[in-house]
Structure formats: C-alpha cells, structure tokens
Protein 1
Amino acid sequence: MGETSQHGTDGTCRRDAQGTRRRLLDAAAELFAERGYERATVRDIAARAGANQALLFRYFGTKKALFGEVMARGGQEQLRTTPADRLFEVALRGMLAGGGGPGADRSLEVCLRSIGGSDEIADALRGLGEEYAEVLATLSASDDGGLRGDLALSWLLGIGLMRVVVGKEPLASADPDTVCTLTAGALRHLLEHLPADGTTG
C-alpha cells in the first residue's frame, strides 16, 4: 500500500503520511516487544502496518533509526511525563498489561527482548536503562541512592523478564494490581520517597 492519493490536497497528503508513519511506529513497537530487535524484520513491520517497505525506508531510513524512534517515543516520553515517584509502577504496569492497546508504551519489553543484539543497540538500551535508574535514584536521600536506583531498575526488569519473556507461573498470570501492591510495599524500604499509598490503582 502506498500513500493514499496524488489528487488530494497537500493537507490530506500530510495527514496520510503522518498516519502511515504512526502505524509503522506502532507496528515496530509491537514487533520489537514481541520478538526483539534482531528477529523483527522490516518486511513484517511494514506488513503489520499495512504499508510497504519503501515507505518505511522513506520515513525512517534504516531499521536501526526506526528502533531509535520507537525507544524515544516510548521510554523517553514515559520518563518525561511520569512523576519520579510513579515511574516504577507506571513502567511495571506497562509490562504487566501484556502490550496494552495501540500506542501503548512497550519500551521495557523491547529492552528485555533486544538485549544481546548489536553493540549499538545494546548501547541504546543501556542508555535508556541508566536514565530510568537515575530517576529512581532521586527517590532516595541515602548516600548510596545510585545503587538503590540500579537495584530498583533491576527488580523492575527482572519481574518483566520472568513474566513476559520466561512466562514463569504464577507470576505470568498474576493480577497486575496484586503484583503492584506487593512490590510497592517492599520497594518503599529501598526508595523511601515512594508515596505511602503504594499504587495509583
């Protein structure tokens, strides 16, 4: 499927292009989360988006550049818009939701399934992880706040690994509210500036 019309107005063409670009980003986010960077092919991303590969390369240039935009749209947006004291839970709920709906942030799932890829991809994932850990570290006034932030991130990714990638029961089918409640209570010993109510519900 190409761009919709050569006879429409410039505004219509721009809307069509924006819609196609958004569908490609959504499809890439889904497939990177499901398969990881290496196994998600450009052909499959384009097919899921209902577009052709030529458009993917036209809008993003390379698969690696597309991956970068997926991570920027998801993880960076989450970091930018989520209060520090809600970040752990919001990120955890995103993984527990098992994909959510179209446009849902799946950047941490992408991280879990893409680790072990090329050095450049690993560096990008490491950079995003460091940003999450730095934000989490601000929730502790302790001298070892950086370590506490790393431990919180490790716990978050570990939960995601066991539920999303490994499918370990009973965690894999546990109710997200239950998981969030149990983790919030324990996490407050590590990050003492978490809200006392534990979850946002």
Note: The radius of gyration is 19 Å.
Protein 2
Amino acid sequence: MRVLGVDPGLTRCGIGVVEGVPGRPLTMLGVGVVRTPSDADIGPRLVAVEEGIERWLDEYRPEYVAVERVFSQHNVRTVMGTAQASAVAMLCASRRGLPVALHTPSEVKAAVTGSGRADKAQVGAMVTRLLRLDAPPKPADAADALALAICHIWRAPTLNRLQQAHAAARKAPTSVRKVIR
C-alpha cells in the first residue's frame, strides 16, 4: 500500500509518502513541505498548495491519501487556513479517484507512539525509528505527514473491516439489527 500523507497548512503543508503493509517494515519514498508566503493573498497560496500536491501525486502515484482532520483551535484564522489547505488536498485526490482518509491528530499520535497525547518530538522520533531514518524529518510538518501515512497503513485494514461490518448490518433485516446493536 502506498500512501501520501498530508499535514495541511497554508504556510507549510507537510507531505510524505510511505509504502508498506501492517506487520512489515515500512519504506519512506519521499518527504517534503509545500511552502507559501504568509503575506500573499489566499487565492495564489491555495493554487501553490494545489500545484505542490499535484506534483507529489504525479511523481509518487499513491493508492491512498491520508489527510489530518482539521480540529477546532483557538485561532480561527489558523484553523481556516488549515481547513482550506485540507480541502485542496482532498480535492486533488478526489479528482484522481483516490480514496481519502481523515485521521485526527490524536489518532495519528496514538498509532505512531502509543499515546494520543504525544508531543511533536516524540512523533518525530518514532517516525525516524519506524522508517529507519538517520534523523527526524524537518520541519515537524514533514514528520507529521509521514506519521499520517503510517497511521493510515496500519489502520486501513481495520477500518475497512469495520465499514464492511457496518454496511452488512444496515442490509440485515430489522430483527437482526436489534441483536447486533
């Protein structure tokens, strides 16, 4: 499974590509950051993020795209930019027919470090270890993108089984659904 992880942001949008399957060593294929100037207008910044993501999609041809789910922050301006960059990533993937998965920051931290409250340094250290890198990817946005890809590789089979079970339960007769719940 080849996954493009996207840590959305307008100033720095982390991007990482990881290949592997659960239970086997993972391989980092690429990592980087799409940058835009903070003093530029929103339109050109979103276009720059789109162009950057499209280049990564062209070069690495992932099977899935994992994007960090935007969560509420105290700074509305920051969360809006993150949400807009997130939407660009989802649009780029969807335009190509690629499945998009959204993972919360705590899901990613828990998958990679074992704790949903891990700090950026712990995530970077575990990404370094799991991908057998010489040093943590810099900036932290790049490490976070790799962590998203790792999280998706590890969680996707379980999520697929849960979705299939849920779909089967919806198709079951009403009497069976009551027993399942």
Note: The radius of gyration is 17 Å.
Protein 3
Amino acid sequence: MTEPPGRRERKKAATRQKIAEAALRLFLEHGYDAVGIRDVAAEADVAVTTLFSHFASKEALVFEQDQDFERRLTQAVTDRAPHEPLIPALRREIHALVRHCTAEGAAPIWDMIDSSSALRAYEESMRLRHAESLAAAIAADPGPPRTPTAGRAIARFAVDAFSLAREAADPDAAVDEIFQMIEAAWEVTGPSRRT
C-alpha cells in the first residue's frame, strides 16, 4: 500500500500546479514567446527561485506532466500483471495518454507547441528521454529476452505512436493500427524467431 504524501509534499505539489496553471494561462493569453519567467512567477505569486525549484526551464512549464508520463510508460512494463504480455500493457497506457492529450481544451496547447520551435525541440528531447527510460524498463523485463536494439526500437515506436495518434483524426483507431505493427515487430524479434 502506498503511503499518502505528507503535508510538505502536498504543499510542494500544490505550488507546482499553481505555477504550471499560471504559466499556461499566460502563454495561451499572450503567446509563449511574449511571456517571461518573471511574468509567470508574478502571476503565480512565487519567487523566480521557487519557480526554478519546480521547473528547470520555461519549456518545462508547458510540459508539466512530463515526469508523470515517463513514469506511467515505464510502469506499464514494470507494474503489469506477471503473465500479461508487454505490448498490450503498453498499448493500454498509450491509449490513456493519448486520451488525456486529446481531451477537450487540449487543441490550443498543441497549437502553441506546434508554433514554437523551442517547444517542438523540447518535446522531441522529452520523447527521446521517455523512449530511453522505456527501453531500460523493457531490457530489465523478466520476459523472453530480446536484443537491446529490439527493446530500444519498440520503445521508440511506442513513444512515437503517442505523437502520431495525437495528430490523427481518430486517435484511438490510430493507436490500435500502430500497435498492430508494433506487436508484429515484437513477435519477429522473439527468441524463437532469431537466427
């Protein structure tokens, strides 16, 4: 059983959330490039040093749930039931992440990201980091062994599935279509298929 967070952790989480909400509100109202870190700190009623103790950069303010998404991806591998296959567990988590990121009200945020080269670059580096974390979880999985290259490729495919599906007219159908290909690739890399 997970112990509930203490008062200090709850306060830190609330401050982090307040900063992220203030930043997003300002970015959407005035444009990402027009808003500075000091503007966000003032809007959230925190010191600039407090803002930087929660977020490493201005770009990180937009991707406030970055660490949670990365944790969810790796836990899809590490926390699945003992006999649950890997790829269906990943598919389920990617479906959940895509639903979150295509929910009502998300379009203006993605429009802002797509219109900013700094945010697009940050998103790309974030996806690469998520893929590396996911590949490490796959490599440590006690299931049938795969080559490191196979694990890294499947991790990249899964993370890219999120981006491709998010942009599709029917995100759920896109996840399913992409994961059919991922499942086939995973099967091909299985121990009995390698020579």
Note: The radius of gyration is 19 Å.
Protein 4
Amino acid sequence: MTAGPLAYTTRPVADEQDRAACFQVRKEVFVGEQNVPEEIEYDAHDADALHVIAVAADGTALGTGRLLHGPAAASHTGGDPAVGSLGRLAVSKEARGLGVGAALVRAIEDAARSHGLTAVDLHAQTHALRFYARLGYEPYGPEFMDAGIPHRAMRRTI
C-alpha cells in the first residue's frame, strides 16, 4: 500500500473480473498507445500465467504484469526451469511515475519465489532499460525486435 496522493495495492489476480481489468490495461497501453496488434498482445500463455494487478483504493485497475514459469517460460528463459519470465508489464497513463510499475515487478518476483524460482528474465523495451536496471535487472544478449519495438533481454537473481 502506498501513502500520498494515490493509495493502491498489488496482488495476484483473484477472479475473472480482475483478469478482465488486467487485459483492459494491457489493451490501453500496448494496443492503444504502442500500436501492438491486438491479435499478438493476448496469447496462449495468458491462460496459465500468474497475473498480478495494481488496484487503486476505489477499485480502478492501475497496472498489471504476468509471470510465466515452468514449461511456459522455457522459450523466454533459455530453458532453465529455475527462471521465470516477467512480461506484459503495463501501467495506465494516469498512474505512471507513482511507483506502480516497481511495485508490480516486486509482486511478480514474490510470486516467482513462492514457485521456487531463483531468477526472473524479462524482455524490456529499450526505453525501459533504466527502469529495470534500477530494480536490479541486468541486460544480456543483443537488441531484438518484438511487435515492431526494440527490446533487450534482462535477468535478475531473486
């Protein structure tokens, strides 16, 4: 919970209403703002991923992210079963700069620990490299394109 102008909590998605709110934030950010084609924004991993949500005191969804683990994460992590994959991190425009993104990353890391994982990988849009670096993630490998947006792989031991 935060203090100050916007109180919010982060937690695992509890039901279909939460899930729909997560998908709406992703649609606003990735499809609406970044022009990611909707047909590639949602994928088969959404069904089994652990989703987290940041919710304002009034119930408004402020952000979301997901954790892939086990076989679902293998293609994102080089096949290491002890590494999870953080992805689809999105924060609504009105909640940016308030710590929501960092809180979501920490909630995903907590979920990864609870699943026995020892590290988390992610594919960061290059404009977000400093954000993730401040949270302890280190880039590796070359820049690559995903949905027409430049990315770098990053990893943090948890």
Note: Residues 16-33 form the longest helix (18 residues).
